[in-house]
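hey m, so remember when u said the tokens were messed up on ur end? i reran from scratch. heres the input so u can diff it against urs
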Amino acid sequence: MADTDDILIEAEDLGRRFSGVAAVSRVSFRVRRGELVALLGPNGSGKTTLLRMLAGALAPSEGRALLCGLDPAEQSLEVRRRCGYLPERSPLYPEMRVEEYLRYRGRIRGLRGAGLLLRLHETMQYCGLSQVARRPPIGSLSLGQRRRVAIADCLLHSPDVLLLDGPLDGLDAIQSAALAGLMIDLSESCAIVFSSHSLESLQSVCSRALILNAGRLIADGTPDGLTAAQPGAKTFAQAFVRMAAATSEPPRPAGTAPRRGRRP
């Protein structure tokens, strides 16, 4: 059995309500160091809400999240030192150059002097940004390059946990493959959870998939294992559609029972 110190992300009956409606309901799972986990689900299934709670950007209505054994609600600053969080819309400054922006972000994270310069060099090289470091502003870069800048920002402080909201969405096949390769390399030393709408390529990217629907965790396993569990499914995308369709229901106020069919 793996050491419990390897568990870097833990959700315990995690839930969040908005105006009485459950966006996420009693979700529980663990992620260990070295795992690259895809968080999947239809639009509105709760993926972004769940990632925001894990990162400490949103307080849960019930349950709790632990990152590296720390509670984001009580140890927010330490959690941010150990975690890199990429929100759904990357908050980049389009008028700044890549190196200028990352230097600024590194200072915010407490890096100074030779340590900052070393991390800038390492991170830009690792993320394939060295060639555009001092070129025209971030706003003129391709979408794939801007995603790399946002991920480089998350990596500057050498986090143990990466939470990435839609890093592959909107990229073309070449950009997506390059960024997926980067995430695979990164997962060797940390735990990564990323949300995505790209299904066909996930079997070669992630070691595990968590599937949400209507705010509930409906499946947790390897892509191959989840595909094999759906009779007749030839691809993971087919298995995903079947699982989502079997559990679909509209959001309802927290604490209410699901609608039942009429008795014959």
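this time it looks ok to me. The beta strands are 7-18, 21-32, 36-40, 62-67, 83-86, 161-165, 191-195, 208-213, 216-221. if urs says something different then somethings off w ur setup not the seq
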